[in-house]
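Our preliminary data section would be incomplete without showing what the modeling component actually yields. Below, a chain of 234 amino acids is followed by its predicted structure, encoded as tokens that our downstream tools consume directly.
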Amino acid sequence: MDLHVHTPKSTCYSEPSVTPEQIVDAALASSLEVIAITDHNTVEAIDDIRQVATKKSLFVFPGIELSTKGGHVIALFELDTPVERLQDFLDYIGIAREGWGDAAIMAGNGIEEVFQKIGERRGLAIAAHIERWPSGFLETNEPRRAKMKIHSNQYLSALEVTVPQNKSLWNSGQVRDYPKKYACIQASDAHALGHIGRRPVYIQMEKVGLPGLRSAFLNYEAKIIFPDELSVSQ
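Predicted structure:
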């Protein structure tokens, strides 16, 4: 899986002419079975991607990468969630249409409120690229106490890490000042075709869908593995 993929609907995408067909084909060429489309503050690419992906047996989670003062958040929803419902969610968290696609536009009144509103709409909240400056929550200018509160939030489901060697520390709650244990994923954060699938994750699900993903996040020790870990185990 690659659960953090952008399209030209994100204004910072590096290849504006890329088509949905090319994105799906790039995912399949990278041996991916599941992707999430997570453009910045917009859902406008999702239907076109899903239409192509369905014909080619690629699963697509509809998602959004949301910007907040406390860091970026990936919101994931069930596979068949209508785009109209996702657009309504953008209204719910305060993203006006003129801000769609722009990572500089901030959502809601803060990252914890965004976590809660994702949960209220039955989505999953993942803290995006947590170690990356300046948009991962660990690397923002927020005080450490605020970061500790973000990390302990009940609506946060998983962490997207950019330092895979730290996965076991986050899994086991051994990072100083951050004792809550979390599932970890890695993902490409693709802003170009060549990025798709560059940091995949294996997640075991009986059936691809949000319930299966939610279950894997709760049972991460048995159901989530990074490719490097698989190589070591073999």
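DSSP finds nine helices and nine strands in the chain. The chain has a mean pLDDT of 96. Preliminary results of this kind motivate Aim 1 of the renewal.
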